């Protein structure tokens, strides 16, 4: 029987994180982003960025967590990156202090499609929330492509809602709309379900 768990990323995970990011984007965003942009993404460049993010994060509240599926052998199957909200979390023309210092921001939350629907996304999100709670962050935000129904549905099922902010990313002269979702960070962990 396969089991899954979440752990902090290690610098040695960077190549696999980049591979998962690229594979997931090429499947999940193939109808949202231009094909030549997805085809032209450089896996080694992404890996170097992830290596830096894991080894030398901007603060001790910036973290990358990975989801692992363990059967006869272990597979890295997804990841989440988050930290205190910064200028990347802001909407266009939003004041620098609009989100406050007690707000977390997810920059990436991906599970490779072939490992989907096994609880990895939920485990990643729950682990991130636990860390935000420990950091005394009271709310969180995440940007999602407007056309990414799967991510919006997943976050919505965990209580995330649009906060009214939107932006358009310029992807090789094509504007791709995003909306910002937000959620309050619960002050207590969710109770474990009662055994059946």
UniProtKB/TrEMBL annotation:
Annotated InterPro entries: Acyl_CoA_acyltransferase, Bact_Acetyltransf, GNAT_dom
Listed Gene3D superfamilies: 3.40.630.30
Molecular-function GO term, any one: acyltransferase activity
Assigned keywords, A-Z: Acyltransferase, Transferase
Enzyme class: transferase
Enzyme Commission (EC) number: 2.3.-.-
Protein name: GNAT family N-acetyltransferase
Organism: Plantactinospora siamensis
């Amino acid at each position: 029987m396969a089991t899954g768990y979440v752990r902090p990323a290690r610098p040695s995970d960077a190549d696999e994180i980049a591979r998962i990011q690229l594979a997931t984007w090429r499947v999940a965003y193939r109808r949202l982003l231009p094909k030549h942009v997805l085809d032209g993404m450089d896996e080694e460049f992404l890996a170097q960025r992830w290596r830096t993010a894991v080894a030398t994060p901007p603060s001790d509240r910036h973290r990358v967590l990975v989801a692992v599926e363990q059967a006869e052998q272990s597979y890295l199957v997804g990841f989440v990156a988050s930290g205190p909200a910064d200028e990347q979390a802001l909407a266009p023309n939003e004041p620098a202090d609009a989100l406050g210092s007690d707000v977390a921001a997810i920059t990436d939350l991906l599970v490779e499609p072939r490992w989907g629907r096994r609880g990895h996304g939920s485990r990643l999100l729950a682990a991130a929330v636990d860390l935000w709670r420990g950091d005394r962050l009271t709310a969180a935000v995440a940007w999602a492509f407007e056309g990414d129904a799967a991510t919006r549905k997943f976050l919505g099922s965990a209580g995330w809602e649009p906060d009214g902010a939107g932006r358009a990313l310029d992807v090789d002269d094509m504007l791709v709309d995003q909306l910002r979702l937000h959620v309050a960070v619960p002050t207590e962990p969710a109770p474990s379900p009662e055994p059946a």
